[in-house]
């Protein structure tokens, strides 16, 4: 059985809470070794730390997400710094830039209820501070970017970056920027949402990304895999939305192996190496 690594998910998010025992059993069954569990704001950080003590496969990652950065506390950076100093294996994320949440999302979308949405300028400042921290501690940074690829490249070039590299999670940027990001230390994670017909262009990128920079993720419990690729359905959330089960990582590996035209075993060995290089 191949050894699997999930480069980006959120095991601590509410929709997964009632199913934790079943999920942990399924993850052991599919051969999951480690999963990077990303905190998106200060309240989530201690929850992830506690979960990581219970579930040995969790690699904790702490950050302030661009959607949450307008709600950060006055002490957020000092809290993050001391957390990294105390937890030598923790990574940084998820952090980044999101223009869509500023001018694309519907104002009554329940996902932004109670959030003060920061300007792209403010998001950039918070992102830069966290990238500098990642560089100082040499910890992998997991980056979320929506409709802000030019600004992302600008900041990455102008800021010190972690020597171990950084992850552009669920990469959805332009094909022609891959070389720029790769030269700066980028890794790219594939997920099953990219199999949706409307993402054909993004999916095509995963034919070209260098093998030594590839990773695989679920982003669970966010959006479930494209229709036909959800092998681990969970009961719908109370609001009726579908939940992505973290064990779909096995389906994602199989899909990426097919896309790259390599045996699953070969891909799994490569991803294991890449994961270890980045997340150490
Ligand atoms: Zn995420």
Describe what this molecule looks like in 3D.
- 39% of the residues lie in helices and 15% in strands.
- With 280 residues, it is an alpha/beta fold.
- It has helices spanning 20-30, 44-54, 76-86, 100-103, 120-137, 149-158, 178-184, 200-208, 249-260, 264-279, and strands at 4-9, 32-38, 58-62, 91-98, 141-146, 166-168, 186-190, 214-216.
- The model has no long low-confidence stretch (mean pLDDT 96).
- The protein has a single domain, classed as Metal-dependent hydrolases (TIM Barrel, Alpha-Beta Barrel).
- Helix 3 packs parallel to helix 5 (120-137) and helix 9 packs across helix 10 (264-279).
- The protein has an eight-stranded parallel β-sheet with strand order 1-2-3-4-5-6-7-8, sandwiched between helices.
- The radius of gyration is 17 Å and the shape is globular.
- The chain contains ten helices and eight strands.
- Strand 1, helix 1 and strand 2 (32-38) form a beta-alpha-beta unit.
- The protein binds zinc ion (ZN).
- Zinc ion (ZN) binds at residues 8, 10, 38, 94, 219.
